[in-house]
């Protein structure tokens, strides 16, 4: 399978369940912070080295004000990357949850609440991270990441995305 469209065509129930799960988690983000969800999806996909997912979501964010210079620096050093300070504790959490989940501590959670996020945003970030990690593994596992192309058969991100949390 070369694309997610191939997966949906060959195994519609599995593909649709994954897609609907991602759609559901993304829908939990309010219109004011939909850019946060898209940024997290792009960032987590980059951490996972899921080139297909990273490029797809990055392409979706770019026309809406996302800055290409933000994504690479986030992977290198969240604290020095250009972006809202309030978002950085969540970025630290999803990075740990993706790469070293056993290292998550109460201090990570405390930093999120001290930055002004509520329990709902905290849980939304964790759910989004879990779903994106699964989607990235799916894309890598079925071989989508082996050959990236700008093929029109690639599924685009559902709905418009606003990336207002990037500077």
Question: What does it look like?
Answer:
The structure is a single chain. Helix 2 runs antiparallel to helix 8. The C terminus is likely disordered. The chain starts with a helix and ends in a 26-residue tail after the last helix. The chain is built from 8 helices and no strands. With 167 residues, the chain is mainly α. The longest helix is centred in the C-terminal third of the chain and has 23 residues.
Question: What's the number of helices?
Answer: 8
Beta fraction of the residues? Answer: under 5%
DSSP, total strands: 0
Query: Which consecutive residue ranges, at least 5 long each, have pLDDT under 50?
Result: 149-167
The N- to C-terminal Cα distance equals: 37 Å
Helix/strand/pairing category = mainly alpha
Described by strand count, sense and barrel closure, the largest sheet is:
none
If you compute it from the alpha carbons, what radius of gyration comes out, rounded to the nearest whole angstrom?
15 Å
Tell me the overall shape. Answer: globular
User: What number is the mean pLDDT?
Assistant: 77
Report helical residue fraction.
55-70%
Can you write the helix and strand succession as a string? HHHHHHHH
